């Protein structure tokens, strides 16, 4: 079964399995807040469906520093889920309101469940600004897989992007648009037809439930993933204490 799963996943690039290809990173002052974080995405290709639920615990260490540890499972064509890796994410706000935009540094370290498989690193700037009640986000991340590539070679440093527009209409209903992309090697982009870009509508919101708060988001993305046509759904729910 493990060999069959590995063979299927070879059809999908590591970037297609990266959670930041489906969830936009946005930083806030959440000092002292503890959260349970559930995420889920799926990608429907022709003849192949990949899904990945994730569950984590996050904490606002200071007004600038947010950290989270989470585990990821992968399911192929509706089969059983397989725990594939654990990740540690850290986001640090470099500015806090002194400019018209906020700038943060995002880092994420991923460790495969199999210790022999090594790890992967992601890092880059996170930008956020607002015009009236509309929020704009733009992120640029560098990703490097330090696991041994097929044939014994090394994986290159790759470049990914995230864009989002969200209108703060009601606390419980905030419509928006998201877009994600991968262009390949950071200093030698792939031809456009081999790149992956997808975009679509998104809905956000938050509500108080007793002494806790729940935040949620849903998105439906259409475009290309691993240079193949795909349709994707993603959701995220955070229970904040």
Automatic annotation (TrEMBL):
Write the record's keywords in alphabetical order, separated by commas. Answer: Signal
Signal peptide from the UniProt entry: 1-18
**By what name is this protein known?**
DUF2490 domain-containing protein
Source lineage: Bacteria, Pseudomonadati, Pseudomonadota, Betaproteobacteria, Burkholderiales
């Amino acid at each position: 079964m493990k060999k069959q799963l590995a063979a299927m996943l070879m059809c999908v690039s590591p970037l297609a399995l990266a959670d930041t290809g489906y969830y936009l990173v946005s930083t806030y002052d959440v000092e002292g807040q503890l959260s349970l974080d559930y995420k889920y995405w799926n990608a429907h290709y022709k003849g192949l469906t990949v899904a990945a639920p994730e569950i984590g615990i996050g904490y606002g260490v200071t007004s600038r520093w947010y950290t989270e540890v989470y585990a990821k499972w992968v399911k192929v064509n509706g089969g059983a889920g397989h725990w594939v890796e654990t990740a540690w994410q850290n986001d640090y706000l470099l500015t806090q309101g002194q400019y018209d935009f906020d700038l943060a540094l995002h880092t994420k370290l991923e460790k495969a469940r199999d210790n022999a498989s090594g790890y992967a690193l992601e890092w880059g700037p996170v930008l956020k600004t607002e015009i009236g009640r509309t929020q704009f986000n733009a992120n640029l991340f560098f990703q490097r897989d330090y696991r041994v590539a097929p044939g014994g070679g090394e994986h290159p440093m790759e470049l990914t992007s995230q864009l989002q527009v969200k209108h703060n209409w009601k606390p419980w209903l905030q419509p928006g648009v998201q877009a994600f992309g991968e262009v390949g090697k950071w200093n030698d982009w792939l031809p456009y037809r081999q790149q992956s870009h997808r975009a679509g509508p998104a809905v956000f919101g938050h509500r108080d439930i007793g002494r806790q708060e729940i935040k949620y988001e849903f998105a439906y993305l259409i475009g290309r993933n691993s240079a193949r046509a795909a349709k994707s759904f993603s959701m995220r729910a955070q229970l904040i204490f």
